[in-house]
Write a structure and sequence with these properties.
The complex is a heterodimer of chains A (122) and B (148). Chain A is an alpha+beta fold and 122 residues long. In chain A, 32% of the residues lie in helices and 39% in strands. In chain A, a hairpin with a 2-residue loop joins strand 3 (57-62) and strand 4 (65-70). Chain B has helices at residues 39-44, 47-67, 117-126, and strands at residues 29-37, 70-76, 83-88, 91-96, 105-114, 134-145. The chains are: A alpha+beta (122), B alpha+beta (148).
Chain lengths: 122, 148
Amino acid sequence: VTVKYLLMIYENDELRGSYSETDFAGLIAGDAKFQQEIRESGELVSVEGLADAVHARTVRVRDGVPVVTDGPYLASKEHLASYFVVDCEDLERATELAARYPAAHRNGVEVWPLLTRGGTEM
Amino acid sequence: MVVHRTSRTGRPLRPTSASDTATVRSNDVKYLLMIYMNPTTWESLSEEDRNEVIRGHEEFQRIINESGEMVSTHALAEPAQSATVQVRDGVPAVTDGPYVEAKEYLAGYYLVECNSRERAIELAALVPDARFTAMEVRPIIHSAGAQV
């Protein structure tokens, strides 16, 4: 039995700005290698990369009226940059995968079990 | 804690030829509709309100399944079950809980594919949680799946 986990990668503009071109190329190569490995192992369900946080909008409905504001919901230096949905053995394996992702070496990777009910993704 | 029903659907492709289904898509863009939850807000809701949220999700899923805008949806386990992994000097350090410290946490998300940002916002406003907390709408710039 496998469980789906969400691996969330947070970005920090300050940190991102500090990367050299070599750092950046290394991150991109590391990401590609990681994707290839987990695709081959059959653990990759999907990966989505998000647009910059400046393109985020927050929607609240109050008394039936939608109120839209610019920017992410959480007031935080960190924002979600991308996420992987993986299907793997257990939390230990999900954690192991998270530790192999390049972002774990710079910022951090958050691991969440997904509740699945009546269906699977993709 | 709300258990958002997950459902599975592939957005129907509109191929121009049967042999080219994987590459022919509309100009639609994917948006992530992120559901944030505040545990205090959720606990303050009446049983009736909570049931309405759950029904609201079912209704929302019906709408986007029928319109073909649904890509996928997932509900996340509670924050206590999350872990943050950081590797320093080659050594993984695992801590319990989410990466970002906040009262609110990501409770689930809908990945939709639609023809404008306005439509994505319109869809977000239909998600019942928008009435109590908020939805965050983010365009997706890169996607990959199990198949290359």
